[in-house]
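Consider this record:
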Amino acid sequence: MTGKARQVIIFVAILLVGGLIWYSSGMTKEETKDKGEVTIGLNNWAENIAVSNMWKVLLEEKGYEVKLMSLEKAPVWTGVATGDLDFSPEIWLPHTDKPFYEKYKDDVVLGDTWYEGTNLGLVVPEYVDVDSIEDLNANKEQFERGGKPSIVGIDAGTSTMKMTEDVIEKYGLDFDLIVSSGPAMTSELDKAIKDKKPIVVTLWNPHWAFAEYDLKYLKDPKNIYGDKENIQYMHRKGFEKDFPEMKKWLNNWEMDDQSLGTLMDEIRKADDPEKGAKKWVKDNRDLVDQWLK
């Protein structure tokens, strides 16, 4: 065999092996090539962590390099408005994120709704004998933490916390609002329920806690927390030109309580969010394929 013939055989073998690798992965070369870097801005809410990691998994499958930036709510809006973040998956409108939207509406682009019918407010375990925010003062001794009646909140600067500050003022509540985080709040809620003690927290749905525990929203006669809302995504200006196929996928994206609930549950059970998201994507391939048409 001549040296030239040997080179041809080696070259063909390399092509065959390469083809087998592409075939066995289930992806085309077009899908797996590097399509650029995308930065997603998220805040530390259970469903936000879940869907952000889900999109990281899906986009990396399609050849994008994905970076997740965990920030508080205000910096997420600022980051998208300045172009430092490409998109953020969770915007609550028309009420919760209205202050941020009014400030940045000329500098961000809102995408389509992917979840309909949220709730937001003060929540207690079902066994707590309080049904309305108006009843809290009369039962404030039940909710003492460190010698002061308290509401366990989440991150400072979020719309949820700002509305809760309004609730305390307008209902005249003799309560402190504890600043913590989403995970810290649910940890306190879990501990109180295990000890069957009263606790009042800021909470919202969609959230895995409503599947895990028997909870109830306190009635809000003044409607400070507002009516049911929808969740949509937002992106920086120019995003649709830089990532037209991604824009299409995000607009195809729709979830409900069942699909989002199972995703959050996988994230919660996993030792890291991306691992949980990968398992959920594998188990829900038919659904995600509808988005990625």
The radius of gyration is 23 Å.
